[in-house]
Amino acid sequence: MVNTITVVGAGNVGATTAQRLAEKELSRRVVLVDIVEGVPQGKGLDQWQTAPIEGFDSRVIGTNGYEETTGSDIVIITAGIARKPGMSRDDLMNTNAGIVKAVSEQVAKTSPGAIVIVVSNPLDVMCHVAKAVTGFPRERVLGMAGVLDTARYRAFLAEALDVSVRDIQAMVLGGHGDTMVPLISYTTVSGIPITQLMPREQLDRIVARTRTGGAEIVSLLKTGSAYYAPSAAAVQMAEAVVGDQKRILPCSAWLEGEYGHSGLFLGVPCKLGRRGLEAIIEVELTADERAALARSADAVREPMAALTI
Ligand code: APR
After folding, report:
1. Model confidence pLDDT, tens digit, residues 125-145
2. Which residues line ligand 1 (CB under 6 A)?
3. Which helix (H) or strand (E) holds 31?
4. Domain boundaries, the chain
């Protein structure tokens, strides 16, 4: 257990994240920050009142400022606007870049030793904003994307094969968008290569559905984007850090030559522990996967060029 985990943005993703953190007792205090007056306070109080029922001792506090967040061990940034039907994650860029910049300035001032987990979209570009503005080393700025994309992929596979989700191991790399790269060669069911269990056409359909998994939910909800699985994914990353678990999870990380790319955030297999990003694992990729990852990197670089921070 750490002392304080702050969640910035008390909307759908942020509030659900705070609730999950508290229920898992990952920190003594969970501080929920939002600019809207009353909302973080109200949600914080409501969540704290679930403690006697759920039986957790993490104190949930809602606030509009950063004083209560001082010295946070982990800060999860979910502030920003969410997608509406027809919008891509990149459509959110300018609005959310301004928001993530303002948040990052406060985080750098009040929690200079924090590990930052970014959830706001477009994810890989928002990670870049958070890293540039805080000045934190790459070990302490990570983006939540791959855990979510992999969870969607695993859920679709488990459903199609009628097996437990627990037995599906998989890795989705690349940017958090339509160019993401589900690695078929590393997808197994309890060690059995997926290609032995499913015809290629069915697998391709599942890969395609994974790529647009977020948009599928946006089109159903109509007024916002997914938040149950995104919050669960962010909390799994926080749990790996708090527990120094050395988990290997796909996360958006700042690349310095890994996979042949530099100077951008991209989804890659990361080892997460108490120091944050403890290693990037470089796995062998097929020529097709390498080319797909390069296309995904281009899709992240392109909007980055239009970014003014
Ligand atoms: N500081 C703190 N909170 C802010 C700020 C700011 N500068 N600007 C906006 N917010 C808050 C809003 O007031 C709102 O409560 O961020 C919250 C966003 O909540 P929702 O609109 O419910 O959006 P949500 O579904 O939670 O998604 C948030 O996560 O998954 C991504 O694409 C998604 O970028 C989006 C983000």
Report:
1. 999 999 999 999 999 999 999
2. 8-14, 33-36, 78-83, 92, 96, 99, 102-103, 119-121, 224-225, 227, 230
3. strand 27-33
4. 2-143, 146-304
The per-residue pLDDT for range 190-242, each reduced to its tens digit, is 999 999 999 999 999 999 999 999 999 999 999 999 999 999 999 999 999 99
Kindly indicate the confidence band of residue 309, based on its pLDDT and cuts at 50, 70 and 90. confident
Q: How far is the CA of 65 from the centre of ligand 1 (A)?
A: 15
Ligand 1 atom index nearest CA of 89: 32
**Own/partner pairs for 91-94, CB < 8 Å, 24+ apart?**
92/120, 92/121, 92/122, 93/122, 93/125, 93/303, 93/306, 93/307
- Measured in angstroms, how far is the CA atom of residue 15 from the centroid of ligand 1? 10
Q: Could you tell me the distance, in angstroms and rounded to a whole number, from the CA of residue 223 to the centre of ligand 1? A: 13
Nearest to 214 by CA among 121, 278, 126: 121
Q: Over the stretch 134-187, which tens digit does the pLDDT of each residue have?
A: 999 999 999 999 999 999 999 999 999 999 999 999 999 999 988 999 999 999
CATH code, 2-143: 3.40.50.720
Output the CA 287–ligand 1 centroid distance in Å: 38
| Residue 226 Cα: closest atom of ligand 1 | 25
Task: State the pLDDT at residue 299.
Answer: 93
Q: Are 251 and 142 in contact (CB under 8 A)?
A: yes
CATH topology of domain 146-304: L-2-Hydroxyisocaproate Dehydrogenase; Chain A, domain 2 (3.90.110)
For the entire predicted model, the pTM comes to: 0.97
Q: Which residues participate in catalysis according to the annotation?
A: 176
* Best mutation site among 6, 12, 76 for ligand 1 pocket (most ligand atoms within 8 Å of CB): 12
DSSP element (H, E) containing 3:
strand 2-8
Distance of alpha carbon 263 from alpha carbon 254, whole angstroms: 7
